[in-house]
């Protein structure tokens, strides 16, 4: 159902920093202190859909000598140190030792290593299995725990895997499951990247019904947390009046914030659309709209001092 522009406008104006959408993660809850192991060859089913998991290939840890470490957490620390020193094989072995004994940071680091190809060949299915083990065991750990950011990032990464699928595996593209992954990280953990992805999916109707009100709410949450893609997308929506009532000055303000973040953080090619969108909007804006946008920017900066 299409919501009127007036309602969307009121929704945007009324958004407060304290807005907290209810968690919509519909997976099977795992006890907070449940033990977790690294993915096994037999694997386990995903809580969202019955995906048959295949574990990472390679020798089992039982056939490998444990690293010189007093505890699994020592193995995590020494593994990360070995990676920094370029001793990838030894570092991975130490991390696997810690991961098999339930250390969340080790599961996450191994997932990132194989997802990004950090000293190893990219293996998305193996990365998927590590991230899936982490999220299954720690989906409902308190958001303030030290490893909560690892769990949130694991959900986000799984969401991206489900958006595109993984070649030569049983992980097929499924935007509905991707939306659920993003939404849990966005609502339960308050992850800005996840909030941006949820807003974007509501905006285009991918994995969920198209809903401009929900899109603007999630994008605003991410924008307030400094997610520059969300800032630019929300700014573009407001400036053009696309799917929402036009608020050109507010839109130019968000585009300015996003453009400044790109300049400050040294954005890459993927950020070109942000600077291009800002430049086009600034050229089209009236002088009054530019002045008002600058006023919004001053207030934004003042709240962050």
Q: Tell me the β content.
A: under 5%
Q: What's the number of helices?
A: 13
Written as H for each helix and E for each strand, in order along the chain, the element string is HHHHHHHHHHHHH
Provide the CATH superfamily of the largest domain: Tetratricopeptide repeat domain
Summary of the model, kept short:
This protein is mainly α. Helix content is 59%, strand content 0%.
List keywords for this structure.
single chain, 305 residues, mainly alpha, Serine Threonine Protein Phosphatase 5, Tetratricopeptide repeat, 2 domains, 13 helices, 59% helix, 0% strand, elongated, disordered N terminus
Walk me through what this model shows:
The model is unreliable at 1-65 (pLDDT under 50). Helix content is 59%, strand content 0%. The chain is mostly helical and 305 residues long. Helix 10 (228-240) packs antiparallel against helix 11. The protein has helices spanning 5-13, 72-84, 88-100, 104-116, 124-138, 148-164, 175-187, 192-204, 212-224, 228-240, 248-265, 272-284, 287-303.
Give the SSE map.
Elements: H1 5-13, H2 72-84, H3 88-100, H4 104-116, H5 124-138, H6 148-164, H7 175-187, H8 192-204, H9 212-224, H10 228-240, H11 248-265, H12 272-284, H13 287-303
Helix pairs in contact: 1-9, 2-3, 3-4, 4-5, 4-6, 5-6, 6-7, 7-8, 8-9, 9-10, 10-11, 10-12, 11-12, 11-13
């Amino acid at each position: 159902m299409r919501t009127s522009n007036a309602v969307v406008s009121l929704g945007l104006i009324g958004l407060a920093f304290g807005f907290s959408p209810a968690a919509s993660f519909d997976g099977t809850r795992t006890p907070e202190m449940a033990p977790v192991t690294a993915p096994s060859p037999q694997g386990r089913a995903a809580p969202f859909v019955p995906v048959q998991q295949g574990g990472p290939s390679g020798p089992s840890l039982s056939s490998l000598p444990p690293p010189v470490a007093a505890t699994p957490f020592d193995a995590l620390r020494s593994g990360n140190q070995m990676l920094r020193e370029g001793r990838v094989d030894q570092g991975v072995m130490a991390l696997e030792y810690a991961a098999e004994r339930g250390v969340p940071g080790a599961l996450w680091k191994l997932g990132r290593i194989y997802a990004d190809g950090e000293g190893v060949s990219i293996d998305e299915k193996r990365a998927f299995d590590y991230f899936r083990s982490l999220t299954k065991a720690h989906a409902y750990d308190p958001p303030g725990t030290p490893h909560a950011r690892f769990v949130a990032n694991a959900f986000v990464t799984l969401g991206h895997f489900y958006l595109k699928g993984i070649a030569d595996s049983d992980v097929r593209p499924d935007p509905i499951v991707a939306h659920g992954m993003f939404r849990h990280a966005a609502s339960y953990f308050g992850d800005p990247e996840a909030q941006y992805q949820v807003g974007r999916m509501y905006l285009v109707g991918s994995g969920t019904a198209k809903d401009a009100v929900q899109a603007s709410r999630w994008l605003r949450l991410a924008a307030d947390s400094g997610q520059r893609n969300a800032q630019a997308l929300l700014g573009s929506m407001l400036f053009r009046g696309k799917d929402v009532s036009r608020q050109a000055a507010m839109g130019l303000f968000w585009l300015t914030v996003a453009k400044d973040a790109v300049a400050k953080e040294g954005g890459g090619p993927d950020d070109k659309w942000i600077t291009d969108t800002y430049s086009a909007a600034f050229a089209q804006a009236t002088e009054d709209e530019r002045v008002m946008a600058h006023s919004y920017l001053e207030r934004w900066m003042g709240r962050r001092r």
